[in-house]
Amino acid sequence: MYTLNGNHSNYGVAEQTLSDGDSVVFHYTDNYTKERGGGTTENGQTTADLHSAAELRGVAEESGSRADVYRATGDYLETLGTPQVGAVGGEWMVIGLARSGRKVPGDYYDNVLQYAAENMDANERLHPAKSTDNARVILALTAIGKDVTDVDGHNLLLGLNDLNYLQKQGINGPIWALIALDAGNYPDPDGGDVTREALIRVILDAQLEDGGWALSGENADPDMTGMALQALAPYYDRSQAVQNAVDGAVALLSAMQDGNGGYSGVDGASCESIAQVIVALTALGIDPATDTRFVKNGISILDALMQYAVSDGGFRHDLTGERDGMATEQGYCALTAYDRFMRAKTALYMMTDVIDLGGDTVPEPVDSRPADTGSAEMDAEGGFPWEMVLTVLGIGAGVTAAAVWRKRIRQANSGT
């Protein structure tokens, strides 16, 4: 690299015309992101940003083609044996394997039966505070063609029939309940106040002023915004309110995208944030490889995902880490979503190609959200349920809020 009169230039040395007194200094760096100064491109990117982008393109290329990474990661997941019931090493592995056409070990269903026998309560809930346990297992069982209304006599749909219960996890609960109901086109659960229309209203009411969604606060998070879009995608053509909300969120995600094609949530840049956005885009019929809204400095969001790939299969949580279980499962699900998109198959979570029980339609267009709604991720008293979060996660009172929040985002990425 070099500087001309103290500034990094947008041009190669051979393209420069020097004047008397100009100072050219050549230097070496092993981290372009730490370079400062210099020119900017027409879209406002610094020269250092462009060098960093070029370097990361090389990282993605060295990690292998998307097809190679997809194949290697699927092969790696198959070596892990029978999935358990859980946020990592469980249902997301099942969903990825099944939706990519790979075989899921039959013993997984036996694990579900045992888990249900040990944890199901009288309300058909697998967890007293986390409705996403029911939603996650519904998605996995649907993917492998199992009856979610008769899991050794238990109906998993009934565990999603109470809005107050769903919202114990903030907006995360309603989002995944809607995704789960639509997965097999299931009927709205009996005996409660949960309908598709009600879930859509809750999700729309939680949309922030900037156009996205978050677990708490006023600034959108790419992970939660991606998840909300996944839930709303089937309703895009049915409601103007949904269409407006989706369009605003897509525009926001384009603006939030980093210069290297990826995303940075409250936990920093991560594979999981990218994966959630890719799944959302494919559900909306947007090509994450070519749509110019999601290409920065020549790097698409799919290219950005490849930066996190491990050579022998799997993904890192961050660019400097080792292979990570959650990142691997989420990254594989994202590639599966893209593969299905390219093959004109149903979306990752739209599993009506496996099971279709007819469902319940939204009876009328959903009204646009009121101007003064507050945030649906708050508890009944208007504050975020931190006590519940600490209890569920088993974290002592001395842990800082930042650490809790980082863990919370990781759990939201896994639908827990």
How widely separated are the two ends?
46 Å
Strand order in the sheet with the most strands: 2-1-3
What composes the largest sheet? Answer: 3 strands, antiparallel
Which ranges are low-confidence, i.e. pLDDT below 50, for 5 or more consecutive residues? 8-15, 27-63, 367-409
What fraction of residues sit in β-strands?
A: under 5%
Mean pLDDT: 81
- What is the total domain count? 2
CATH fold-level label of the largest domain: Glycosyltransferase
Number of helices: 15
From N to C, what is the helix and strand string?
EEEHHHHHHHHHHEEHEEHHHH
Text of the CATH class of the largest domain: Mainly Alpha
Helix content bin: 40-55%
Number of strands: 7
**What overall form do the CA principal axes indicate?**
globular
Structural class per helix/strand content?
mainly alpha
The appropriate CATH architecture of the largest domain is Alpha/alpha barrel
Rg over CA atoms, rounded to whole Å, is: 23 Å
Overview of the molecule:
The chain is mainly α and about 425 residues long. The protein has two domains: about 1-60, no CATH class; about 65-365 and about 390-415, Glycosyltransferase. Helix content is about 40%, strand content about 5%. It has helices at about 45-60, 65-80, 90-100, 105-120, 130-145, 165, 170-185, 195-205, 220-230, 240-255, 270-285, 300-305, 325-340, 385-395, 400-415, and strands at about 1-5, 5-10, 25, 265, 270, 295, 300. The chain has a three-stranded antiparallel sheet, with no helix packed on it. A two-stranded antiparallel sheet has the order 4-5. A hairpin with a 2-residue loop joins strand 6 (about 295) and strand 7. Helix 2 packs across helix 13 and helix 3 runs parallel beside helix 5 (about 130-145). The radius of gyration is 23 Å and the shape is globular. The model is unreliable at about 10-15, about 25-65 and about 365-410 (pLDDT under 50).
